[in-house]
Specification:
Elements lengths: L3 E7 L2 E8 L2 E5 L1 E6 L18 E5 H6 L1 H10 L1 H5 L4 E5 L2 H7 L6 H10 L4 E2 L12 H24 L12 E2 L9 H14 L4 E3 L3 H5 L3 H14 L6 E3 L8 H6 L4 E4 L1 H7 L2 E4 L2 E4 L18 H9 L4 H24 L2 H9 L3 H11 L2 H5 L20 H8 L9 E5 L11 E6 L3 E4 L18 H17 L4 E5 L5 H7 L4 E5 L3
Parallel strand pairs: 4-5, 4-11, 5-6, 7-8, 9-10, 10-11, 14-15, 14-17, 17-18
Antiparallel strand pairs: 1-2, 2-3, 12-13, 15-16
Helix pairs in contact: 5-6, 6-7, 7-9, 9-15, 11-13, 14-15, 18-19
């Protein structure tokens, strides 16, 4: 049986089920990062926030004799006091910071098996952004080699007669820095070997510097190299403001230390950004923390060294956004949520604009049937649904006289065909007006991009049906109107008729 199955889809995102040795995980979800040395919020309490899985660092456990003995004797679940699934990282973060660690990839993989990790990770090389293509390729090849070795080690324990029959899922981290060709190559090569999860690694520097457009390119390149059904983990992504964008591009799991790190710095997380606690006069949230404290009381707790309430709020805010995203996937309006979230910060808006540049890829994964298309701004004119409609204009076979209009006009019954004209799509038979996506809710006063998208499709539709005679009624002022008027089979273009 596959370890991952898809239940609902929207854009390139989905709701899935990941099966582990400690239960079924519903994705998309967040794995709170647990420091095995000190737990700000005890792992045993995390389930009430929504955590079905957590992530901890196997290398930290390995380096601490007391922790290591406990984990080997009683298992990592006993060590953390967590009954759900546990993913363990290999020490790649320490490798990226200190450039060397005292363990090999084989050793850390075997150690993760020994302590009962549900999902283990080989010791990959976290190549940072902006390095040369040559360096990124060399380190990528090292990561691939280590992942293949780890795959062989894990498979050994699954053979008949092996001492351990535990089945640890194995992650194959996708590296390649900011070179999309390498991210694609790494993902494709790893998928040929076959792993249970594919983390996209070394993106934290992009996230902390708000380079969301490049993050989008990294995700898409990796996704293109992976099987569509493969679960994807975006390593180090923990702020709820960017979850919707990443999920819409096909990321299934995130890990968050941000809830704790932001609390230490007095920062209050929301899905639309971050507030500094010292500036808050009102708490814009109704989680159990924010209904138990006033803004002044929360500030007082922080001033007295108690950051736990703020960390708990941050965790509630994190899972509230995950639940919002899931509901949007079910209702088929995830992309509208993405557009709203990405307008919270100019750099997120950069990410949105880069994402719609990949609409041709998103269109191959986006369901055809949904509820209602909401036009939320100029970026909506480049959504996958609009691209799909434009690519299928050749399916309309029109003859005789055709009226294309933005609203009802007199003497419509004199035409053989009547087509509604709605931006950003263009013209379509009035009979389809109540079907998706032509039931779109659009602005009464469309913007330039929506009008241009619609008129480009009208122009192409008329060119594809050269035997028909067209009359176009709209009140828009756009250069493409002159191009439409100049076509030989256009009888009239008018604002009123």
């Amino acid at each position: 049986m596959s370890h991952f199955e898809t239940m609902h889809k929207d854009s390139a995102g989905r709701i899935g089920r990941l099966y582990t040795g400690h239960g079924r995980i519903e994705t998309p979800t967040v794995m709170p990062v647990i420091n095995p040395n000190i737990q700000m919020i005890p792992a045993s309490e995390l389930a009430k926030f929504g955590a079905e899985i957590v992530i901890t660092n196997a290398y930290i456990i390995y380096r601490n004799p007391e922790l290591m003995d406990h984990a080997i004797e009683k298992g990592v679940h006993s060590l953390l006091d967590f009954d759900g699934a546990i993913m363990t990282d290999s020490g790649s973060y320490q490798l990226s910071v200190y450039h060397d660690i005292e363990i090999t990839s084989d050793e850390i993989v075997r150690f993760q098996q020994k302590i009962g990790s549900d999902i283990g990770v080989p010791l990959d090389i976290p190549t940072p952004p902006d390095v040369s293509h040559e360096r990124a390729e060399s380190e990528m090849k090292t990561t691939i080699a280590r992942c293949r070795e780890a795959r062989g080690l894990v498979q050994e324990t699954m053979q008949p007669g092996a001492q351990s029959q535990e089945t640890m899922l194995l992650a194959g981290p996708v590296q390649g820095a900011t070179h999309p060709d390498l991210r694609y190559e790494c993902a494709r090569t790893l998928s040929e070997t076959g792993f249970d999860m594919y983390p996209i690694g070394a993106v934290v520097p992009l996230l902390t510097s708000y380079r969301f457009a490049e993050m989008v390119d990294v995700i898409v390149a990796a996704k293109k190299g992976l099987p569509p059904a493969a679960p994807v983990h975006l390593f180090g992504a923990g702020h709820p403001a960017m979850f919707a964008l990443a999920v819409a591009l096909g990321c299934d799991l995130f890990d968050s230390a941000a809830y704790a790190l932001y609390a230490r710095d007095g920062r209050y997380m929301t899905a639309s950004g971050t507030y500094h606690l010292d500036t808050l006069q009102h708490l814009p949230c109704s989680c159990p923390i924010c209904t138990s404290y006033t803004a002044d009381e929360l500030k007082s707790e922080f001033a007295n060294g108690n950051i736990i309430p703020l960390a708990k709020h941050n965790l509630y805010a994190t899972y509230a956004e995950i639940n919002t995203i899931k509901q949007c996937i079910i209702e088929g309006n995830l992309w509208e949520l993405v557009e709203r979230r990405c307008r919270a910060h100019p750099r997120l808006l950069d990410g949105l604009r880069r994402a719609v540049s990949h609409a041709d890829w998103i269109e191959t994964l986006d369901p055809v049937r949904k509820s209602t298309f909401f036009y939320c701004g100029s970026e909506s004119s480049r959504r996958s649904e609009v691209l799909r409609f434009g690519n299928r204009l050749d399916r309309f076979d029109l003859s005789g006289t055709v009226l294309i209009r933005t609203r009802k006009v007199k003497r419509e019954d004199e035409f053989d065909h009547v087509l509604d004209l709605k931006p950003p799509f263009g013209a379509y038979p009035v009979e389809l007006g109540e079907t998706y996506p032509f039931n779109a809710e659009v602005s009464k006063f469309p913007d330039h991009d929506a009008i241009e998208s619609a008129l480009q499709n009208v122009l192409r539709l008329i060119e594809l049906n050269s035997d028909a005679e067209f009359t176009v009624v709209c009140g828009w002022d756009h250069p493409l109107i002159a191009d439409i008027r100049g076509l030989p089979n256009v009888q009239e273009v008018a604002a009123l008729w």
